[in-house]
């Protein structure tokens, strides 16, 4: 499943993306990602640690979801596996400066709850 | 359309359609592996390919979308430096991504300011070592080059 989610408590929704978020893959999950992010109770962690490829379309989807979350008064943060190409994509596009990025699950959840 | 990659080793023609982009990626991975391109270099080319095809599909205009896109992969090895060249030829509106200013793209100051434009080009520029563009016979010819050192 390219997108799964669970509500960890009343405060944090963790949305896990996986596989290839190329142009096609990103289009397939964009609407659901935005909708789940907007409807979360408070904070959202988007877990990218199982994502093998992140395109600019994937980043657009993340930005749209973060804006939707922010519009409803909460925060969205990203959780990554620190060593891989997803991090490079985030750095190349400067998205890490707009949406907080963490490589530790606990830190990500605390930040989302803040 | 004719390509001109020096020492072209593989070629593929696809429709300008986002589902074809996956077929193109699979072609690139297998052709590059056959030529001994290291996996981390294939990843760079794969990202550039996805972004370049997305640009053709969304910005190339009706001529791009109704026509085919030709891909060629060439490898050059010499003096310990290897270069893989991915050539993308499309019939869309003229667009030269190699003329953007060098260096990092301007960063939006906040999420509210962030727009969706320009990210794909920022990625192509970040993941490639060189871009070469020419317009010929009504087609865009974009060559994306990545290089690495290889001990023989």
Task: Spell out the key features of this protein.
heterodimer, A: 114 residues, alpha/beta, five-stranded mixed beta sheet, 4 helices, 5 strands, 45% helix, globular, B: 152 residues, alpha+beta, Heat Shock Protein 90, five-stranded antiparallel beta sheet, 35% helix
Question: Would you summarize the structure shown here?
Answer:
Helix content of chain A is 45%, strand content 29%. By secondary structure, chain A is of the alpha/beta class.
Count of folded domains of chain B = 1
What letter string, H or E per element, gives the SSE order of chain B? EHHHEEHEE
The total beta strand count of chain A reads: 5
As a whole number of angstroms, the C-alpha radius of gyration of chain A is 12 Å
Shape estimate of chain A: globular
The residue-averaged pLDDT of chain B reads 86
Q: What does the main sheet of chain B amount to? A: 5 strands, antiparallel
Question: Structural class of the secondary structure composition of chain B?
Answer: alpha+beta
Terminal residue distance of chain B: 36 Å
Report on the biggest sheet of chain A. 5 strands, mixed
What do the pLDDT scores of chain A average to? Answer: 93
The Rg value of chain B, from CA coordinates, equals 15 Å
Q: Which fold does the CATH topology of chain B refer to?
A: Heat Shock Protein 90
CATH class (first level) name of chain B: Alpha Beta
Number of helices of chain A: 4
Q: Which bin fits the share of residues in helices of chain A?
A: 40-55%
Please identify the structural class of chain A as seen in this structure. alpha/beta
What is the multimeric organization of the chains shown?
heterodimer
Structure write-up:
The complex is a heterodimer of chains A (114) and B (152). By secondary structure, chain A is an alpha/beta fold. Chain A contains four helices and five strands; from the N terminus they run ββαβαβαβα. Chain A has helices at 23-39, 56-71, 85-93, 105-113, and strands spanning 3-7, 12-21, 43-54, 76-79, 101-102. Chain A has a five-stranded mixed β-sheet with strand order 1-2-3-4-5. In chain A, helix 1 (23-39) packs parallel to helix 2. The relative contact order of chain A is 0.19. By secondary structure, chain B is of the alpha+beta class. Chain B has one domain (5-102, 117-149): 2-Layer Sandwich (Heat Shock Protein 90), CATH 3.30.565. Helices cover 35% and strands 31% of the residues of chain B. Chain B has a five-stranded antiparallel β-sheet with strand order 1-2-3-5-4. In chain B, helix 1 packs antiparallel against helix 2 (39-59) and helix 2 runs antiparallel to helix 4. The radius of gyration of chain B is 15 Å and the shape is globular. The model of chain B has no long low-confidence stretch (mean pLDDT 86).
């Amino acid at each position: 499943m390219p997108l799964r989610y669970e509500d960890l408590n009343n405060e944090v929704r963790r949305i896990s993306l996986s596989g290839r978020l190329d142009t096609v893959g990103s289009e397939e999950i964009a609407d659901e990602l935005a909708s789940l992010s907007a409807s979360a109770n408070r904070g959202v962690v988007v877990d990218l640690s199982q994502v093998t490829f992140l395109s600019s379309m994937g980043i657009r989807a993340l930005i749209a979801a973060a804006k939707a979350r922010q519009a409803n008064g909460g925060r969205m943060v990203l959780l990554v596996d620190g060593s891989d190409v997803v991090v490079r994509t985030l750095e190349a596009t400067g998205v890490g400066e707009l949406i907080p990025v963490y490589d530790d699950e606990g830190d990500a959840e605390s930040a989302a709850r803040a | 359309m004719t390509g001109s990659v020096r020492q072209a080793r593989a070629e593929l023609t696809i429709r300008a359609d986002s589902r074809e982009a996956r077929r193109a990626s699979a072609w690139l991975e297998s052709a590059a592996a056959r030529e001994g391109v290291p996996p981390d270099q294939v990843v760079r080319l794969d990202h550039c390919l996805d972004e370049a095809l997305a640009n053709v599909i969304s910005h190339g205009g009706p001529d791009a979308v109704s026509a085919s896109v030709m891909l060629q992969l060439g490898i050059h090895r010499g003096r310990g430096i290897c270069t893989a060249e991915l050539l993308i030829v499309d019939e869309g509106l003229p667009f030269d991504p190699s003329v953007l200013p060098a260096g990092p793209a301007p960063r939006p100051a906040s999420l509210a300011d962030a727009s969706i434009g320009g990210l794909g080009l920022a990625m192509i520029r970040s993941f490639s070592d060189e871009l070469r563009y020419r317009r010929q016979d009504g087609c865009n010819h974009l060559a994306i080059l990545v290089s690495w050192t290889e001990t023989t």
